Amino acid sequence: MRAAQVHAVLAGGVSDPRRLAEWAADPQALRALGVDPASLDLPALRGFAGLALKVRHNGLRDAFMHSFRLLHVAGLEIEAFADYALARASTGTALAATVAARARALVDFVRQWHDPGCAAQALLWDLLRHEQALFELMQPVAAEAQMPAAGFSTSPTPGAVMRVRGTVRLHEMRHDPGAIVLALRQREPDLAAIAPAPRALCYWRPPDEAAVRIVELDAFGFAAVQAAEGQRCVSELSVALGLGPRVPGPVRALLMQLQRAALLSFERRPRSAMR
Amino acid sequence: MKPRSHDNKHPLVGLAYGPGMVEFIGSHPGWVDYLEIPFEQLRHTPTLAALRDTAPLILHCASLSVAGFIPPCAGTIAAVADQARSTGTPWIGEHLAFIAADPLGDEPGAAATTLSYTVCPQLSEQTVERVAENLAVLRPQLPVPLILENSPQYFAVPGSTMAMSDFIAAVAERCDIDLLLDLSHFLITALNTGVDPLREIDRLPLERVIEVHVSGLNAQSGVVWDDHATPAPPLVFELLERVMRRARPQALTLEYNWSPQFPLAVLRDHLDRARTLLLAA
Questions:
Q1: B223 vs A9: CB contact, 8 Å cut-off?
Q2: Domain extents for chain A?
Q3: Reduced to 3 states, what is the DSSP secondary structure of residue A116?
């Protein structure tokens, strides 16, 4: 086999891992390129494509240190990045230039890649979103958080528009990310010992604060903050919850709780906006 | 423990440039003799050249594709030469590998495939000859010697007719070139190809080793992979001891440059162990 042809095949497979699947399905295609199919370990070459892509994500290790540790401890690094290399080749997208964009792309991939039935992958999905939320919220305050209030502060009346004070990221987790982080700090992490503990988390950076708070919400609180992100009014939230436009007292009480916690504010629309 | 002091007669111990390494050098005076910096990073971020104020620089390179059939462009070779002059590097370490290859198929005008990561070449006489041809073009254009680093082998390369150790020996002899022995790459190759590393190391032309690399490795999906985010296993240091029976490298670089969380206690310990082994020989 000519060395130049062999090199062309190796480089072609690494640069576009879709070819590896094609060659596995049709070994004659490989033979036509001058390489004996029996002589090429396609799974290992696929793993090499994963390694090469993993290395290009080293810049994410600072913000996603526990996710990378989890990938390593669970033995998922090569598999995950090999599948990611294939997915990227399929979409033909270039690797993003910034850490933030590269992180978003990786999270988007893991969203559809992970198998919730696989314990380690389920842990990874929770941990990755946890670290992404912290990373994004620690960036210089986004314009969305600096928007001036549109109306006048009020209590959660049916017509009041709900607003999040500051910036939030909402995630429904299957595990407690804190417990995952704690386990990963051990010399020999026992991932199997991390029991599922579903929870709804609100990662919240209040205005004019540098720190990010993590607030555990109940189902109602989660729906309320979600609605507030869309800047809906209280009666719309009530309808969305199946409670009708007349906002029940307990709902108002819970909203007032979120208002007292300074997570939500309620605004009356200015008259001009109501016309 | 603070490592022993050194002078110019003793081999140097350095770190590969990466997150946290400059800070480590600043906070550990006397521990690190030099910083090894990739040409590609210097080219992308020219301001990194200021690192020479922090520590002497040794230039490392992954762009010359010395075992490939697609030569680097003239601009790349000139840029490597420029960086060699401006860093004052005593040599340039380059991978005995390829990073570009012919396009697949025979479409007219198709561009070469260029990768972001070096690939182990076919281990054959054909490749040895090609390396010789490439070096004959490259070496006169570079202001300092080129030394070649052994690739990690993750799978059998089709058409190979010799083991990695034989390939390295053949290239070294055919091209009369010195070596950068990456002990972790060597161990990875031994483990993936099923040879005894402690026996195989003696088959290398160790007298040609100018620089040594040390980093970690990890086994996943049935293959042992390079990993600069984990510490070298004890076997790498055992191999270093074996190497030092025959070799007198001038420098040893710890390549712990993938993760900003690399444990500093391990880094200090490995710097100390490496220097002790080098000085004891």
A1: no
A2: 3-113, 144-274
A3: coil
Residue at B58 is within a domain? yes
Which residues lie closer than 8 Å to B108 by C-beta, 6 or more apart?
none
Give the model's pLDDT for residue B2: 42
Q: How far apart are CA A254 and CA A235, in angstroms?
A: 14
Q: Which one-letter DSSP state was computed for residue B53?
A: G
Interface pTM, i.e. ipTM: 0.94
Q: What is the pTM of this model?
A: 0.92
Whether the CB of A3 is below 8 Å from some CB of chain B: the reply is yes
Alpha helix ranges (H) inside chain B: 21-27, 39-44, 74-87, 125-138, 164-175, 183-193, 197-200, 234-246, 264-280
B116, B130, B223 ranked by CB distance to A56: nearest: B116
Asked whether residue B3 is assigned to any structural domain, the reply reads no
Q: What is the pLDDT of residues A90-134, one digit of tens each?
A: 998 889 999 999 999 999 999 999 999 999 999 999 999 999 999
Q: CA-to-CA distance for B131 and B125, rounded, in angstroms?
A: 10
In the structure encoding, which two tokens stand for residue A40, read together? 């090429």
Residues of A whose CB is below 8 A from B126 = 2-3
Q: Report the topology of domain A144-274.
A: Outer Surface Protein A; domain 3 (3.90.930)
Mean pLDDT over the full length of chain B: 94
Which value, to the nearest 10 degrees, does the dihedral of the CA atoms of residues A219, A220, A222, A227 take?
Answer: 140
Question: CATH number for the domain including B276?
Answer: 3.20.20.150
- Which among A73, A106, A99 is positioned nearest to A181, based on CA atoms? A73
- Asked if the structure places residue B194 within a domain, the reply is yes
> With bands split at pLDDT 50, 70 and 90, how would you rate the model's confidence at A151?
low
Tens of pLDDT, residues B82-106: 999 999 999 999 999 999 999 997 6
DSSP letter (8 states) at residue B3: P
Domain range for B238: 12-103+110-280
How many domains does chain B contain in total? 1
